[in-house]
Amino acid sequence: MEKTYTAIVKSEGGWWIGWIAEIPGVNCQESSKQALLETLSITLREALELNRDEALNSAGDDFEELQIAL
User: Fold this and answer.
1) How does pLDDT run across 11-36, given as a tens digit for each residue?
2) CA 4, CA 47: separation in Å to the nearest integer?
């Protein structure tokens, strides 16, 4: 199942800057809108992987993974 996220983007001072609304700390700056979207995608993927790794490490042994739908 593919999830979607919201990119908030704007052009300012010759640069494109953007944030992922749902994930704090995922923000980027690039010289073009297309490059910004690609960098946001890569950074989002890395942040989600890091958050998952941290959660699994914190859980230790004997845990369950359950899906939560909103």
Assistant:
1) 999 999 999 999 999 999 999 999 99
2) 15
How many angstroms separate the CA atoms of 38 and 30, rounded? Answer: 10
In this prediction the pTM is: 0.86
C-beta separation of 18 from 8 below 8 A: yes
Mean pLDDT to the nearest integer, 47-69: 94
Residue spans of the domains in the chain: they are: 7-59
Question: Are 30 and 14 contacting, i.e. CB atoms less than 8 angstroms apart?
Answer: no
Tokens of 10: 């704007």
User: What does the block give as tokens for 66?
Assistant: 């359950």
